[in-house]
Amino acid sequence: MTKFYFIANGPGEISGWLYPLVQWIKIFNPPWAEDMEFCLILNKCQFASGQEEKVVKSWNFFKEIVPPDDYWEKFKSKPNEETIVFHIGGDLFFNLLLAKRWNGISLAYVEKEFWAERFYRRVYSNKPLKLSNSLCVGDLRFDFLPENSFSIDSKKIALFPGSRAYGLRFYLPFYVALVREITKSFPDLSFTVFFSPFLDPNEKNNILSKLEPIWRNLPIEMKELNDMGEIKDYLFAITLPGTNTLQLSYMKIPILVILPLHRPEFLPLEGLGNLVKGRFRDYIINLYLAKNPYLALPNKIKPGIVPEIVGKFKFEDVLKYFRSLLENRDEIENIHKNLLLSFNKDYLSSQLIWEDINEILKEVI
Questions:
Q1: What are phi and psi of 104, to 5 degrees?
Q2: Per-residue pLDDT tens digits for 297-327
Q3: What fold characterizes domain 2-140+348-364?
Q4: Is 195 within 8 Å of 161 (Cβ atoms)?
Q5: CB 3.0 to 4.6 Å from 104: which of 43, 99, 120, 295, for a disulfide?
């Protein structure tokens, strides 16, 4: 029996990269997978919601799930079985050390090259790298998604409040207020608030209960979203930066990405920047925005392909822009057409990865 350990951390990596890899095994059930025991190690991440373990348990796939607090304990042990360690998220260096400690086969899926990747047995990427041990397999986040979930005749608008409780406390009242104002001019529209499975259910229910007198008479459906493929025939979506911006773009649904910066202390930052507080945190954020004018992932691939409203904006700014889009739907259709041209894939990245892993296993086991 071969032990296959994934190492992952936040909602984006788990839903966008790990989930398609697991889904491929569950759907195709290859014979060689019967000789594997799939496990998952969760490591700490400033972008984590705290609900990662609950979400991955619901998949009914992993034989063992190691919580973040037990990550370092794994360095004290040494499995007797043949071991594979697959880096999906976290620190590339320490995940590599764990694989070396276990005498395991080290694998990784990455978006860009740092330096530790060159010491892995195989590195999979969504774009070509200059590493001799790399294999370009495309973007895992597009796997198993519908190619077109847009309808210009649709009356449905999707709203995404994110995967963390602090965001929900802002975005849900914001969305309710937006729906209340928009339906005065467009009473035929209906709205769906899609809740991430990574949200704390107690926090979500508490906020919903407090806001219920406001939203209960509005055309809003509250729905938990476990698979992006459930979103079909939508006219538009409003969300914050994250993995779903890229998935919605692949699904050809026009989106507006908003990110308020009124409370920078609630905005998680990468690396040591996340430890900085006060005015210097504001400075770091402004410095980043000066060098990176776009935050939405589709805009990093195709600059300006989807609209963004970022900063210390007012509610009226979003309301005015959204109303203008609904009044002139040519702009919505133009966004859709650009997405049609820019985000396409006719293969499964997960399949390419698993086929390559199978070939590696034939060599060493």
A1: -100, 170
A2: 999 999 999 999 987 889 999 999 999 999 9
A3: Rossmann fold (3.40.50)
A4: yes
A5: 99
